[in-house]
UniProtKB/TrEMBL annotation:
Protein family membership: Belongs to the class-I pyridoxal-phosphate-dependent aminotransferase family.
Keyword Transferase: yes
Listed Pfam families: Aminotran_1_2
GO molecular function, one term: transaminase activity
Stated name of the protein: Aminotransferase
UniProt KW keywords: Aminotransferase, Pyridoxal phosphate, Transferase
Native source species: Gluconacetobacter sacchari DSM 12717
Cofactor requirement: pyridoxal 5'-phosphate
Length: 400
């Protein structure tokens, strides 16, 4: 009889993927299902990038490439870091994988020993926790509340450090809260890390370009250049250029870490897709105007969805500074006796109600370590957002 390996104890397919599948199943028999559960832009890949991919196929760029990415794409990534982040990296400080997700997995596999700890501010993308466990490490989850803008404070960081801490894993803008760490926040965390030389930082910058206000994007290795040798900066083309399906992500780090990541990749997937790498060069080097126009579209949708959510009785939602998620506080609603009587006791039950009674798919906050909250992706058209908000409001009023 088949039994899973002990490595998989407590690890399943991500709850977000499960809810997406449940919504698709429901959509097969109902044509009015709206999904606000996806973690990807709804825009198409830009035409110039698609053409670069087609051209890569036509010119037979369809073979194995260098293990952790072509020299050409590494050069384009180095130009990106210089241009957008003011950071210089050598070619042997860049690694490319099949999405930021694989890159993160490679980092953790390549660096964690059993019992090594990774500090993860929460709410967070729970994939981090599962990956840390698969890599043999221990996640040290630090709860960050709405009062601190869902950001880790320097005091919380100092209290979470132990001799076994290997990494602090930061994600700004954040999935699911949309929280953004400004240069001043990073500088304050950097000050704590200066006294802890055994600790590195993994900076997951995948939502860098989905940032709404005028303050420039800040990342640890640029804000604290003296810490750069112990920072791994992770990014990719998925969210910035609507290229989630192409699977290209990358990291910049010290050469020893990059070399160790290459070992992991060489014995698992080998090189990222050759065609996608060519397309990614065009994304990074080609016209950048899609970034601003799509960000402006996301900003309008953010304002729309947050205003709509706050107009629903007992619902409260902060205005997120980045990413394309609203993280709505449903705790006041869940505390209502009317919901208790209907057995809607938590965020998961509320999501089931919204899916089955209102045909709106939303991810419960518990999936991110934020029970009592819901994550609504607004990577959807204005019409879909308005329609979903109407249904949620009607659905809530029907409960009260
Ligand atoms: N990091 C965060 C916080 C994410 O939300 C995601 C995708 O949902 C990723 C990384 C992975 O992106 P990709 O593997 O598509 O590059």
């Amino acid at each position: 009889e088949f039994s899973r390996s002990a490595k998989l104890n407590g690890i399943g397919v991500s709850e977000i993927i499960r809810i997406g599948a449940e919504a698709r199943n429901l959509a097969a028999s109902h044509d009015d299902v709206i999904s606000l559960s996806a973690g990807e832009p709804d825009f198409p890949t830009p035409d110039n990038v698609k053409l670069a991919g087609i051209n890569a196929i036509s010119t037979n760029q369809t073979r194995y490439t260098a293990l952790d990415g072509t020299a050409e794409l590494k050069a384009a990534i180095r130009r990106k870091f210089r241009r957008e982040n003011g950071m210089d990296y050598a070619e042997n400080e860049i690694s490319i994988g099949a999405g930021a997700k694989q890159v993160l997995f490679n980092i953790l596999m390549a660096t964690l020993n059993p019992g090594d700890e990774v500090i993860v501010p929460s709410p967070c993308w729970t994939t981090y926790l599962d990956m840390i466990r698969l890599a043999g490490g221990m996640a040290r989850v630090v709860a960050c509340s709405e009062e601190t803008g869902f950001r880790l404070s320097p005091e919380q960081l100092a209290a979470a450090l132990t001799p076994r801490t290997r990494w602090l894993l930061l994600n700004s803008p954040s999935n699911p809260t949309g929280a953004v760490y400004r240069a001043a926040h990073l500088a304050a965390l950097g000050e704590v890390l200066r006294a802890a030389p055994h600790v590195g930082v993994i900076s997951d910058d995948i939502y860098e370009h989905v940032l709404y206000d005028t303050a420039p994007f800040a990342t640890m290795a640029a804000t604290c250049p003296d810490l750069k040798p112990r920072v791994v900066t992770v990014n990719g083309v998925s969210k910035a250029y609507s290229m989630t399906g192409w699977r290209v992500g990358y990291a910049a780090a010290a050469p020893e870490i990059i070399a160790a990541m290459a070992v992991v990749q060489s014995q698992s997937s080998s090189n990222p897709c050759s065609i996608s790498q060519v397309a990614a060069i065009e994304a990074l080097d080609g016209p950048q105007d899609v970034i601003a126009s799509r960000r402006d579209a996301f900003r309008g949708r953010r304002d729309r969805i947050v205003a709509g959510l706050n107009a629903i009785p007992h619902v409260h939602c902060l205005l997120p500074d980045g990413a394309f998620y609203a993280f709505a506080d449903m705790r006041a609603l869940l505390a209502r006796p009317e919901l208790k009587r209907r057995d809607i006791a938590d965020d998961a039950a509320l999501c089931r109600y919204f899916l089955h009674e209102c045909h709106v798919a939303i991810v419960p906050g518990f999936c991110f370590g934020g029970p009592g909250y819901l994550r609504l992706s607004y990577a959807a058209s204005d019409r879909m957002i308005d329609d979903a908000l109407d249904r949620l409001k009607t659905g809530v009023n029907r409960l009260l």
